[in-house]
Automatic annotation (TrEMBL), chains A, B:
Belongs to the glycosyl hydrolase 67 family. This is Xylan alpha-1,2-glucuronidase. The lineage of its organism: Bacteria, Pseudomonadati, Bacteroidota, Bacteroidia, Marinilabiliales. Homodimer. It comes from the Bacteria. Residues 461-686 form the Glycosyl hydrolase family 67 C-terminal domain. It comes from Labilibaculum manganireducens.
Length: 708, 708
């Protein structure tokens, strides 16, 4: 079966015929850059064999063929002008390296080095390390412009576990998915295998992703039934040679719902036995099963608190069950209560007292911000605060709050802003990345998760440029030191073109795109102004009687006749107290607080004066307008590059940009007209005035349906 | 003589004929606002008499006449619908007030209150307090729109001494003056009295300024000759009824240069005797003489260090000499040494060790920033650091580094940014204003100085809008809690028009104007890029062989192939260490440092990524371009208001804005083209590209002569 699949995918991307419909992701544009100083190797030697080495061999043969239009010969020894790939157990290769440099590579790291006689060796401690090195080598040939004569690359990933979270339901829908139905054809599995599965595994492996949580965190207990576990096993078998481990989201009440027990109390013996049996069943099918993600006592889902137990009780019971198999529990910290005075404080308040109470194979999965994947949030104060608990970031690749797959919003900058945030919890340079990668605290597990934006759309992600967010997540999970701009250029080169002008212009657009979205949606620290439920479009006025107040925009913007913003300073909810100094003082003081977070932490009067001499109201008007102007510039830039892009993708992106501009204006007009009912101030005359009336905008209903 | 002068000025501004050439300053446009709820009083009673009360009487009679076109009757008792002005010694008036509320008024404070029978009383403890109350009353009628039915105003000034520093030379030139020659006609004094002297005193008194340093801090010793002292006495006599005290800048070597002694050593007995004799002579002519300003051991001027003595030795000797007369010494802290590694650190390094060593009647006069009146600087770290020494801020009203009198740059925002800066030296809310006004430390003297922008030009300041900076300085010296926007509107209403659209538009322009200048001159914390000597126009490339390095732009911007900016962090000059926490940490960390000070504290690579997704180079390009766009918007706004402004002043300002736009472009092009020789990056294509070549811009010589 596996050979059959290789054949399918192999022919597709080695054919030399690009489809140019986005289906080939970052394998679309395979060519070396003009100034490349690397010649094509004349020979390949791959001394070892395994399913993974079979992939390595195929990738190199077809990749070099595509890059240099040459059929590279296979040989069986180290030849001059040759390329060799193998593991450190291969003495012929490892003798070229020092023991110490090989040992630091761990499981996934690799070295690519050109030795004497112009032989380039890709070496790792595992087959998978060799695979990652191979993808690096091929990417390097396409994107490097440092003009070095020889390879000398050593890479070790930032995180051990680099995981995609699919919020895919068993019925084929995807929660917060904007690229069509789920790629998992549950009905057809395990009998029928979609060729997309291996393309998926290959795409992930090529950027270093090594885990996938197949189902939604709002988990259907049925996923643990034997029927579904057999489907899962099939996927795990397909993914294994690519190094993609399978994980599942579980429903905490599975023992009662699925197992017929009267309780799911984690301290109940029968419950534990049920889980032990279930684990045994899973691991008998999938010996390298990764573990569980658990969303418990969150947004109405069951959890240990239903039985008077703590999150630690629940997580530890499951951790004990998986421990002997090497499985882990990713326990989500996304909890909040409609009765609390500030949702942004609640995860910290609930989990901080449990610090040190979790098993070693539990890792708390914490969203980047304290609320929920907003266009901009400060980092969650849990990062750095839990010094005796292992934490992993949960990032959102899918654009739930960022215009779905209609808006071009490159998230590399958002991810980097978060990873680079200094928590100061262990002195300066206690950045989120160093807190979570094991540099600051000695964590036995390190991990990072990204909520996938993948669906059955022919271009995978709904928007050609949304692929870049999947790509950027993978690249940063591998190496969080990479710059967002470098990643953007890398992706553009592999996906679209090597044209310098194109690269400069479009990497500029990508780099600016997230800030543009912040500007036209929620500038200056505003957040959660979007439409009810679907989270698309502006509804700052949204009031639904009986609704949870913490699901309504007014809870967050708190606009009134005096001003706007959420007072989280020491005179308000005091959420600032959850941050370490000097951040506490910085966030607590409007004069020091970064302007981009001003209204996140402060309720300020409409006439509050900013450092640039504008009052708050005028600055809001400027920022919203600037966001619109930025989209116009994206549109104009894209149009100017028409000759450098294939017609299909040019038109697709052009259409999306037209939607984005229309909706940026919608956001600007709706928010400004709404806030104006409180500020009673004019929109500065040099800015475009709204073309709609507030009442009309309020009448607009979002009837968008998902792609299919 | 005084009566003669009153006559001259009285007729001028009571004539009802406005000149509309700017000569009448903020007395140009006297009318009540449309919505004013105050009726004109029917009677005036001024029970006391003195030169100051004569002024009060005249101001009220002519002011009310102009405001309501009514001749208000004088009466000699408290009449219904009457207005009374007097001091607390007047029992008929003081009986309406509590003792405690009168005692807190001090020397200069006042109450304006409407009591029963619709009688409004302006009361103070001194004649001058009553004068300030009178000006407040008249201003209030013109500018208040709170629609209150009755007056109930209590005002006590923020600073005791509110002083203009004239950098006027005895030869009639003005250092850094851009509004023509000095208003002091030294040759003609004391015989001939210019009517401008009293207009000057009146303008200052109307906004609360109560002191003037007549001559340049780079002082000619001759000012202390008996010949000049007699001239000074004449001015002091004219100013006295308006409450303007006279001060002089002295040259530290006066005892030798003027007195013929062999030394000016402050510890030398003969030197002390010389100063004692000189003081006696001064005070016999001017019994209320204010004191001395001293620029010593600064930029080549003599000082106590020439004799191995400290600044404290020098200041204390002079302080002892003036002490019995009630005089003070304003000792400037503007010292720096070409051999130091960072000019920004030097005043602190030199003066901090002397903390606590100064006499009570010495006050250190410290410029707002640690370098020199740049478009933007952080506050000088001396503020708050000298807990046992009295400090006063020196602000610059004249636009030495801000386009002279050619650029519309409202400095209210700059002054406020500085005054509101939190030093954190005594916990939070240790703002510069509270550090210097006696709120944090119990200072026996409080003072603030502004370097005047006044000259013989018919509109006093060269640019009609430069008058607003004089006005704003005075208003903030009186009440540093006023907002820059309120002051701008007040000034516009009194100077130009009450038209709401005009006020909103032009206060918007004023509020934004300083940031625009920062953008087109020195964005992101850059500083000192201006032309050599004259300080006009861009010369970031300026190299003059043999010149002091700390007078050259390269010392400050440190542009190189890697990046740009002055590393004052702990890895550089460590100037950040002079600030208290949390500022130290904030300034020390590029991620926390406010963007507007980024390159003040850090040398950052051209590809350094800002939070908005742009790299440093692109952001520089954007900021420079935004500055130009802002000036275009000022120009466009002004043009749209043509119908609301008299023709003369409309044309004057229009012409100045044309110069400003041309020069904003000059700044942008020169700086970007110059920095581009280091960054080797293109100016983003969506921005205007420079129209000039760098070589041509370098050839431009600044041949501007002063107005005359």
């Amino acid at each position: 079966m596996i050979i059959f699949l290789y054949f399918i995918t192999g022919t597709q991307w080695a054919s030399g015929q690009n489809k140019l419909d986005g289906s080939e992701l970052w394998f679309t544009h395979m060519e070396t850059i003009e100034s490349a100083s690397f010649a094509c190797p004349s020979f390949i030697w791959i001394p070892q064999s395994s399913p993974t080495f079979t992939i390595i061999h195929k990738e190199l043969k077809s990749g070099l063929n595509k890059l240099y239009n040459r059929e590279v010969k296979d040989v069986s020894r180290l030849n001059s002008n040759g390329l060799c790939v193998g593991t450190s157990s291969q003495k012929d290769l490892s003798s070229y390296f020092k023991k110490e440099e090989l040992s630091v590579l761990g499981n996934d790291g690799y070295i690519i080095r050109t030795t004497g006689n112009n032989v380039t060796i890709i070496i790792a401690n595992t087959d998978l390390g060799a695979l990652y090195g191979t993808y690096h080598y091929l990417r390097y040939l396409q994107t490097d412009n440092t003009h070095k004569a020889n390879f000398d690359i050593v890479e070790v990933p930032s995180y051990q576990r680099r995981i995609l979270n699919h919020w895919d339901n068993l019925d084929g829908t995807v929660e917060r998915g904007y690229a069509g139905h789920s790629i998992w054809q549950w009905k057809d599995l395990p009998q029928k295998i979609s060729p997309g599965y291996i393309e998926y595994a290959r795409a992930n492996a090529s950027i270093g992703i090594n885990g996938t949580v197949l189902n939604n965190v709002n988990a259907n207990p049925a996923v643990l039934s034997i029927e579904y576990l057999k489907k899962v096993k099939t996927l795990a078998d397909i993914f294994r040679p690519y190094g993609i481990k399978v994980y599942l989201s579980i429903n905490f009440s599975s023992p009662s719902v699925l197992g017929g027990l009267t309780t799911a109390d984690p301290l109940n013996k029968d419950v534990r036995i049920w889980w032990q049996d279930k684990a045994k069943q899973i691991y008998s099918l999938i010996p390298d099963f990764g573990g569980f993600v658990v969303k418990a006592n969150s947004e109405g889902l069951p959890g240990p608190q239903d039985f008077g137990r703590t999150h630690a009780d629940g997580a530890n019971m499951l951790a004990d069950v998986l421990e002997s198999y090497g499985g882990i529990i990713m326990w989500r910290a996304f909890v909040y209560n409609p009765n609390g005075n500030d949702r942004a404080k609640q995860a910290y308040n609930e989990f901080k007292p449990l610090d040190g109470k979790f098993r070693k194979n539990v890792i708390l999965q914490v969203k980047n911000g304290p609320v929920d994947f907003q266009p901009r949030e400060p980092f969650s104060p849990l990062f750095g605060a839990m010094q005796h608990t292992t934490l992993m970031p949960e990032l959102q690749i899918t654009q739930e709050y960022l215009g779905f797959s209609d808006h071009l919003v490159y998230l590399g900058t958002l991810f980097k802003e978060f990873l680079n945030s200094d928590t100061y919890t262990n002195g300066r340079n206690s950045t989120v990345s160093r807190i979570t990668d094991g540099s600051v605290y000695d964590d036995s597990i390190t991990a990072v998760a990204g909520v996938a934006n993948i669906g059955l759309d022919s271009n995978w992600c709904g928007h050609h440029f949304a692929q870049a967010n999947w790509y950027a997540f993978g690249r940063l999970a591998w190496n969080h030191q990479l710059s967002a701009r470098k990643i953007a250029k890398e992706w553009l080169m592999q996906t679209f073109s090597h044209d310098q002008d194109f690269l400069n212009q479009m990497s500029g657009v990508m780099m600016e795109s997230r800030e543009a979205t912040v500007n036209y949606m929620t500038p200056l620290g505003l957040h959660h102004l979007m439409g009810w439920g679907h989270h698309y479009g502006p509804e700052p006025w949204c009031e639904i009687s009986g609704a949870r107040p913490d699901w309504l925009p007014t809870y967050y913007h708190k606009a009134d006749s005096i001003g706007v913003g959420f007072n989280r300073s020491s005179s308000g909810s005091n959420a600032v107290s959850q941050y370490a100094e000097p951040l506490l003082s910085v966030y607590n003081d409007p004069a020091l607080c970064p302007e981009e977070l001003l209204l996140w932490f402060h309720h300020l009067p409409w006439n509050y004066e900013l450092i640039n001499g504008r009052d708050l109201w005028s600055e809001l008007c400027y920022r919203y307008s600037m966001g619109v102007e930025q989209v116009k510039y994206f549109q104009c830039t894209w149009n100017s590059l028409q000759s450098k892009v294939d017609k299909n993708r040019f038109n697709d992106v052009q259409n999306k940009l037209a939607i984005q501009l229309k909706e940026a204006i919608w956001w600007r007009d709706a928010c400004l007209l709404y806030f104006q009912t409180f500020s009673h101030r004019p929109i500065p005359s040099q800015l475009d005035q709204p073309k709609s009336k507030l009442e009309d905008l309020k009448e607009l209903k979002f009837l968008k349906t998902h792609h299919n």
